[in-house]
Structure formats: structure tokens, C-alpha cells
Write a structure and sequence with these properties.
single chain; 814 residues; alpha+beta; Alpha-Beta Plaits; 3 domains; four-stranded antiparallel beta sheet; 24 helices; 11 strands; 58% helix; 6% strand; extended; transmembrane; proton-transporting ATPase activity, rotational mechanism
Length: 814
């Protein structure tokens, strides 16, 4: 956890690598994942860099891989899943040539098979449609010997029946084909219009579904025959068929010719089936063979492309015998990088080993915080607000405890906390199996499993404090109250309430949490309201004071010692003298006023903390009856006046202290005033113009003074959500589950199961899921706005090292 207090120290390191060892060096560094390379060729376009041809080769191999993978998805060929230890390393230059040849061979073979398969499928489909035309048109021709309907058959000119006049009177031409059933009726109307009703159309639906040649989807088709006279009408019909994508097939009118043609079509269909079957078997063998290697090929190509992409960041020296690069490296990983460079030089048999230096720089390094499975979720919550500045205090270290605690204050129920704990425990135990699920919402829960685990533990703890288990209380230690009334008084029908005074009926202190007797009290909500409201303010003020105090650690590290006196001191005084004093009054009132004394310190004379605080700010007063007093102790009014005066002094202290200090410092050092910057810089520093410094400090002061009040009130959400959660839990118990206890017969036993199912479903869905999400978001806001704004700048940028693991994970998500 010590690594989380601040981000790690970073070093800017130039790398000097021989060209023959460059590929192996970057491959080794990619496996380690501890260098963030800088682009030294920003002014050079992507098409003019040294390794652009290699990157294009990788793009071409990726294109081939995508095609092979898409063909496997069409045939539903499953790809084997590689375990992390089975992942191949980046291929060496010799392996690249072999890999490229294998991919090209597989790609060309699949493309050729796909083209041949498409042609064979089209021929097979046309043969099937031709067979359907020949079979279904059998009933369209009545007496083939008397009436000649075959326009392709030559006529005997000596036959009297074939004279021109007779041909015009008796001979009909026809066109046969296949069309989609959904287009047939429009097709029929179009033929009627172009022929003015002089076309006789017959159709016969094909049984079953037929594959569509355009989309490949199964559709309904029908066989049609159009009878007509005249060559001109024939051309029109063929044009309409083309427009409606209707396939026209030759069909003889003679029965014997059709029968002979059907036999020929059947023989060709059998041959096509055999060829298609052999082609499918060959395609399956090729795809299965490629599927065994495709995951490895894909990883190798991605790694190779990433290596050449990084090599394009390098700048060759004047002689061209060395590549120079720069990168940010965590100081703890410098030895790891040096070992990787030495190992790469040895693998590539380079005559000159690669080496790395560390240089001083004024640039702000990237922020890198080393995390593990437990701390990663909390660090992500902080990074979502803003990446920490370099070496700034990291709030995630403290959020590991404060975040689940503040959540539990709002979600305090032992039963609901146990549900969260069991769910998180299941996620943790089944972590490896569940990590293969790629559903986005589920991965959010899986990534925050340890956050949910701690939220469940803390909710169980606050549930013990509130003594709340599904809206019921546990009498573990025995109630500290005892009854001092006789049985006759208690059983009196005219008696509506029994009042128990602590002085008479409390004989001990309940050891841990809330006394269970409050579950029966009529003033339960009033008591819990007061308790939780004051508890929220106390927790909030302590949380904010801790946040302001953390700014001292930042000031001390960055050697801004003047800011400790000019910023931290007035801020913490303002917060302590006003709201810290209000917290003191709450504890003082709890301790001093009790039911064991009479007079000014009796509970009836206890003043309202809110009224006292308002009168303190506004310098007002209130009338109190005898023997009560306005203030809780002697000299309180004078102390309050002093506190208010000091708090008011803190405002100009914050407003003018730092700007005047910078102004005096510049005059004494004789430094020239800074020039106005044309670009928009990040944040405001001591190098800005004095006008900007005054404006920035004024905004900061106004924001802090106003936010101190608003942030304190914001912590009342702890009370509000805790009360709402408890009341909703009680409503579900009384109006759902307890309804099953009202029946005494066997029907009551059945109804208990029914009502329990409804109650359990509503409890998990509303109280645990929806209320839990609401409490989570409110807790997140309290950390981002109320806590982290007191000391956290968040103006840094993330350390993004070149790592194969990250590249492969992103590729899988895409």
C-alpha cells in the first residue's frame, strides 16, 4: 500500500539501439510493458516514416486474417481459446516470411474455393429450378401432337398446317421461368399491361423454400409459363423478366423432349451434388486446419504491427547506424528495461549492445500508480475524477476505507450488507471463470468486486450499530431498559402510551449499537433522525478536515512552504472555528445534558445546536425560560465571538496572502514580470501575471468559503439516505412479508412462501440493487467534490506503457 501514497518516480530515458537489434529490443520491451515511448517524428507524416512498408505488410496480413475468420464464422468453426501461457511471442524476421506465406496460401485457397463454391451453388440452383420448370409445366400443355407450342422447333414448309396463315391462327409461343412468389402478382399485372391482355399466364408454386441467389435466404418461388403470339411481344416479356429478376429457362413443348431433358438434368444434379460434397469436405479440412493456428497467427501479427508502429517513433542518427528513441520509465523498472535490451542484443547477435541513459528534464512526467486486484477498483474511481498530477498525494489509498464506510452509513442494514458480501465473495471465488464473460455491465461489477466486498463488510458493521436486520432488531445483549410499571397499569385499556424515562428505567448501557427497545418506541423516527443527522455532520466535518490536512503533504513535497501558512492555515482555521466548533457543541450537549439532573442541565433546557450556530454567525440571541440558560457553559458567548472574528479574518488572509507574497518575492528577487502566454496553459502557477494570480485566488477563496457551508450540508445525504433505506425496508416487511402471518390455516403456510418470494424479489431489486446504486453514487460524489477538492489537483496524464497485454486486450474488446 506504500506504493499508493504517491505515484511512482519516473525517468526520461533515451534509448540507443542498432537497427538489426531494434525489432527484438522492442519485442522484449513490449513483453515487459514498462516504457511509454515518445514520438520523435511528429513532424513526419505516417507515409514517410522508415517502417511504413512493414506496417502495410502487417495491415495486409490482418486483412487476410479477418477474411479467414469471417469464413470460419460462416461455417461455424470454433476457434480454440489460448491460455495466457500459450500465447506466442512476437515472430522473428524469418518467421514473418513463413507466416506471410502461410496466410497468403490459406487466403488464396479459401477465396478460390469460395468463388468455385458460389459458381457450383449457382449451377446447382439453376438445375433445380430447371427441373421444377420441366416437372411443373407438364400440366400446362394438353395435346403436344396437335398443338405446337415450341417456338424453337423448325416447321415443315410442305405441311398445310404450317402455312403462314395457319401459323398465325394456331401456333402460340411461350416463355417459362421461375420468379419469387412475392413478385409474381406485380409481374402478372405488368405483363397484362404491356400486352393489353393478350398474354395467357399460368403458374405452379414450388414446394418448400428455395435459396435466394441474391441474399442466400430461403424464399418462396413459383414456376410460370406465359403464352403469347408474335416476336415483338416475346422481347417485351423477356425485358419484364429481367426487370423482375425472373430466371427464364428453356422448356420444350414436346412431352418426349421434356422427359429426356429431365433425365439429363437429374444426371447433372447428381454430379453437382457429388462435386459440392467434395468441395465442402475440402473446405472444412482447410478451415479446421487454419483454425488451429489462427489465434496464434492473430496474436503474432498484432504484436508485429505494434513493434513496427513503435519503431516509427524512433529517429535514426546521422550515420544511419543507430536508432534513437525516448521513453518514460518508472525508476523501479530501469533495471528491467536494461536487462530486456541486453537480452534482445544477445538474441539478434548485434555487435554493439543497446543501451539506455537517464536524463534530467523539466517536463511533467506521466502519473503511474502500481495497483493490484484489490486496489485497482478504488484507483479507477479516483482516476475517473481526474488523473493525479505527478507525485501528488493519491486519494485512492484512503478511499479504500472511507468509501465503503460512507456507503455503509447510508446502507446500514446487516441483512442487505450480507447479500452484498455473498455476491462479492462469489465474484472473487469465481474470478477466473467469470473473466471470460464479455458483457459490459457484468464486467463493471466484476471489476469492482473488492469494492462491493468491503461495502458489504462495512454495511454489516453499521447494521450492528443501527441494530437493523431487514428492518428488525436483534436482542443480543438484552435491553438496557426495564419496566417500572405494574401489570394493571400496562393492561389498562384507556392508556395509550407508556413513557420510559432514562433516569428511572435505564439500568445499564447497551454494549454495542442501538438498544432493540427502540424498535417498539413511538418516537423511534424522531430519535433516529436526531442521531443520524448529527452523526452525518460529525463524519462530514472530520472527512473535510482530513482532506484539507492532506494539502500540507502536497505543499511540503513540492516545497511550497509559504502555501502552508498562506493557504492551509486559514482554510483549516475557518473550518475548525465554525463547523469544528459545531461538532464540539454536539458532543458537549450529549455529555452534559442528561436525565439524572434537574435545573439548567436537564434535557428540557438543552438548547438547539442549529439555533446556537445561527446566532453565533449572526450575533443574535434568544429568550429562554427559567431556569434554562441560553448558552451551555460560562464564557461561551465570548468564545463564539472570537471564533467568528478569526474566521472572518481568514477570508482576506486566503484572498490576499498568496498574491502579496508572490508580489513581494518578485520585487525582492528583481525578476522581470512574466510575459503573457499565448497558449492556454494548464492551471495557474506563480509564473503567471499578477492580475491572473489575484483573479485566480479570488475565485479559489470564494469557492472555498461558500463550499465549506454547502459541503457540510451535503453530508446530510448520509442521514437522508440512511433514513429512507430503513423506512423503505420497514415498509416492505410490514406491507409484503408480514401479510403471510395473518392466516392461521394451511393457506397461511402457502401464502408465506408467496409473500416471501415477493418480499425477497423486491428487497434484492429495490433495496439492494437500486438503493445500493444510489448510495454508491452519493458516496462517489462525497469523495470527488467534498473530500478530493480540498487537496487534489488532478491535472496529470496517465502512464500508458507499450505493452502487448494491453494491445491484445483492446483488440479482443473491439
Amino acid at each position: 500500500m506504500g506504493d499508493m501514497f504517491r505515484s511512482e518516480k519516473m525517468a526520461l530515458c533515451p534509448l540507443f539501439i542498432q537497427p538489426e537489434a531494434a525489432y527484438a529490443s522492442i519485442a522484449e520491451l513490449g513483453e515487459k510493458g514498462c516504457v511509454q515511448f515518445r514520438d520523435l517524428n511528429e513532424e513526419v507524416s505516417a507515409f514517410q516514416r522508415k517502417y511504413v512498408n512493414e506496417v502495410r505488410r502487417c495491415d495486409d496480413m490482418e486483412r487476410r486474417l479477418r477474411y479467414v475468420e469471417s469464413e470460419m464464422k460462416k461455417d461455424e468453426v470454433k476457434l480454440p481459446v489460448l491460455r495466457p501461457e500459450e500465447e506466442p511471442s512476437a515472430p522473428n524476421p524469418r518467421e514473418i516470411v513463413d507466416l506471410e506465406a502461410q496466410l497468403e496460401k490459406t487466403d488464396n485457397e479459401l477465396r478460390e474455393m469460395s468463388a468455385n463454391g458460389a459458381s457450383l451453388d449457382a449451377n446447382f440452383r439453376h438445375m433445380q429450378e430447371l427441373k421444377c420448370v420441366l416437372e411443373n409445366t407438364e400440366g400446362f400443355f394438353s395435346d403436344q401432337e396437335v398443338i405446337n407450342l415450341d417456338v424453337n422447333r423448325k416447321l415443315d414448309p410442305e405441311d398445310p398446317a404450317n402455312l403462314p396463315g395457319a401459323a398465325q391462327r394456331g401456333q402460340l409461343a411461350f416463355v417459362a421461368g421461375v420468379i419469387k412468389l412475392e413478385r409474381f402478382f406485380s409481374f402478372e399485372r405488368m405483363l397484362w399491361r404491356i400486352s393489353r391482355g393478350n398474354i395467357f399466364l399460368r403458374r405452379a408454386d414450388i414446394d418448400g423454400l428455395v435459396a435466394d441467389e441474391e441474399t442466400g435466404r430461403p424464399v418462396l418461388k413459383t414456376v410460370f409459363v406465359a403464352f403469347f403470339q408474335g416476336e415483338q411481344l416475346k422481347q417485351r416479356i423477356k425485358k419484364v423478366c429481367t426487370g423482375y429478376h425472373a430466371a427464364v429457362y428453356p422448356c420444350p413443348s414436346s412431352h418426349a423432349e421434356r422427359k429426356e431433358m429431365i433425365k439429363d438434368v437429374n444426371v447433372r444434379l447428381e454430379d453437382l451434388k457429388l462435386v459440392l460434397s467434395q468441395s465442402a469436405d475440402h473446405r472444412s479440412r482447410v478451415l479446421n486446419s487454419a483454425s488451429k493456428h489462427l489465434p496464434r497467427w492473430s496474436i503474432m501479427v498484432r504484436k508485429m504491427k505494434a513493434i513496427y508502429h513503435i519503431l516509427n517513433f524512433f529517429n535514426p542518427d546521422v550515420t544511419g547506424k543507430c536508432l534513437i528513441g525516448e521513453g518514460w520509465v518508472p525508476t523501479n523498472d530501469i533495471s528491467t528495461v536494461q536487462d530486456a535490451l541486453a537480452r534482445a542484443s544477445k538474441i539478434s547477435e548485434s555487435s554493439i549492445p543497446a543501451f539506455m541513459n537517464v536524463i534530467e528534464t523539466n517536463e511533467m512526467p506521466p502519473t503511474y500508480t502500481r495497483t493490484n486486484k484489490f486496489t485497482n477498483g478504488f484507483q479507477n474511481l479516483v482516476d475517473s475524477y481526474g488523473m493525479a498530477s505527478y507525485r501528488e498525494v493519491n486519494p485512492a489509498l484512503y478511499a479504500c476505507i472511507t468509501f465503503p464506510f460512507l456507503f455503509a452509513v447510508m446502507f446500514g442494514d446487516l441483512g442487505h450488507g450480507l447479500i452484498l458480501l455473498l455476491f462479492a465473495s462469489w465474484l472473487i471465488i469465481k474470478e477466473k471463470q467469470l473473466s471470460s464473460i464479455k458483457e459490459e455491465i457484468f464486467n463493471i461489477f466484476l471489476g469492482g468486486r473488492y469494492i462491493i466486498f468491503l461495502m458489504g463488510i462495512f454495511s454489516i458493521y453499521t447494521g450492528f450499530i443501527y441494530n437493523d436486520v431487514f428492518s428488525k432488531s436483534m436482542n443480543i445483549f438484552g435491553s438496557a431498559w426495564h419496566m417500572n410499571y405494574t401489570r394493571d397499569v400496562v393492561q389498562d385499556e384507556n392508556l395509550k402510551y407508556i413513557t420510559l424515562r432514562p433516569n428511572d428505567t435505564v439500568y445499564k448501557t447497551y454494549p454495542f449499537g442501538m438498544d432493540p427497545i427502540w424498535q417498539l418506541a413511538e418516537n423511534k423516527i424522531i430519535f433516529l433522525n436526531t442521531f443520524k443527522m448529527k452523526l452525518s455532520i460529525i463524519v462530514g466535518v472530520i472527512h473535510m478536515i482530513f482532506g484539507v490536512s492532506m494539502s500540507v503533504v502536497n505543499f511540503a513535497y513540492y516545497k511550497k512552504y509559504a502555501s502552508i501558512f498562506l493557504e492551509f492555515l486559514p482554510q483549516v482555521l475557518f473550518l475548525l472555528l465554525l463547523f469544528g466548533y459545531m461538532v464540539f457543541m454536539m458532543f458537549f450537549k450529549w455529555v452534559v445534558y442528561n436525565d439524572t439532573v434537574e435545573g439548567p442541565l436537564s434535557p428540557a433546557c438543552a438548547p438547539s445546536i442549529l439555533i446556537l450556530f445561527i446566532n453565533m454567525i449572526l450575533q443574535g440571541s434568544q429568550d429562554t425560560p427559567e431556569p434554562c440558560k441560553e448558552f451551555m457553559f460560562e464564557g461561551q458567548k465570548s468564545i463564539q465571538q472570537v471564533f467568528v472574528i478569526i474566521a472572518i479574518i481568514c477570508i482576506p488572509w486566503m484572498l490576499l496572502g498568496k498574491p502579496l507574497y508572490i508580489m513581494i518575492k518578485r520585487k525582492t528577487s528583481g525578476a522581470p514580470p512574466p510575459k503573457p502566454q499565448s497558449g492556454g496553459g494548464e492551471g495557474h502557477g506563480e509564473d503567471d501575471e499578477m492580475g491572473e494570480i489575484f483573479i485566480h485566488q479570488a475565485i479559489h477563496t470564494i469557492e472555498y468559503v461558500l463550499s465549506t457551508v454547502s459541503h457540510t450540508a451535503s453530508y446530510l445525504r448520509l442521514w437522508a439516505l440512511s433514513l429512507a433505506h430503513a423506512q423503505l425496508s420497514e415498509v416492505l416487511w410490514n406491507m409484503v412479508f408480514s401479510m403471510g402471518f395473518k392466516y392461521d390455516s394451511y393457506i397461511g403456510g402457502i401464502l408465506i412462501y408467496v409473500f416471501f418470494g415477493a418480499w425477497a424479489l423486491l428487497t434484492v431489486g429495490i433495496l439492494v440493487l437500486i438503493e445500493g446504486l444510489s448510495a454508491f453514487l452519493h458516496t462517489l460524489r462525497l469523495h470527488w467534490v467534498e473530500f478530493m477538492s480540498k487537496f487534489y489537483e488532478g491535472a496529470g496524464y496517465a502512464f500508458e506503457p507499450f505493452a502487448f497485454k494491453t494491445i491484445l486486450d483492446v483488440s479482443e474488446d473491439d
